[in-house]
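Handout, section 3.2

Students often ask what a structure token actually looks like in practice. Rather than define it abstractly, here is a full record for Response regulator. The first block is the sequence as you would receive it.
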Amino acid sequence: MTIRVLLADDQALLRSAFRVLVDSEPDMEVVGEASDGAEAARLAAEQRADVVLMDIRMPGTDGLAATRMISADPSLAHVRVVILTTFEVDDYVVQSLRAGASGFLGKGSEPEELLSAIRVAAGGEALLSPTATKGLIARFLAQQDPADEDRDPARAERLESLTVREREVLVQVAGGHSNDEIAERLEVSPLTVKTHVNRAMAKLGARDRAQLVVIAYESGLVRPRVE
């Protein structure tokens, strides 16, 4: 099955470079290019994209607003957004996760990392393993005001619906660990871990693993550590 990729970046040179890279792979193809967020949201629907590589800073509608637009559209529930960032606008990280982004990738990443990120996102996983990403999430969640209106108090209550094992798995997911790593830590099978993750997502109303991380921090289940 070919992964349909949409490129959203206001720099034509970068889009061209990404297109050459993506189209060189037998299991993926670029189905469209957008220079702003509004166009990205429109093309995601028109071109039936599976993954959107989204620049966070674009004129007009930026990547954050575009991610919200895509996530809010039920017909685009299958679309995964990967934010491309230089990590210079750190406060956008948590906001983007809340908006529905599946993860982040630095623009300075190696070509193989970008291709792997597309495959991981298309497979429904979240790009939360890199230390830099986890550090940013923890740092900015730690700075959030408990009275922040963006928080969802109901999520803390929904944690009560999780089983003890589901809570244990959620803590591990928040630490950026893969299913295999969690399985080894909890001495269960990777399939069992995947089942617990899926059930936790359903109970907490999370779009994917990335949002599970945000819920774990915002609900107080996991406390961020600021180095």
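Discussion prompt for tutorial groups: The longest helix spans residues 190-204. How would you have guessed this from the sequence alone?
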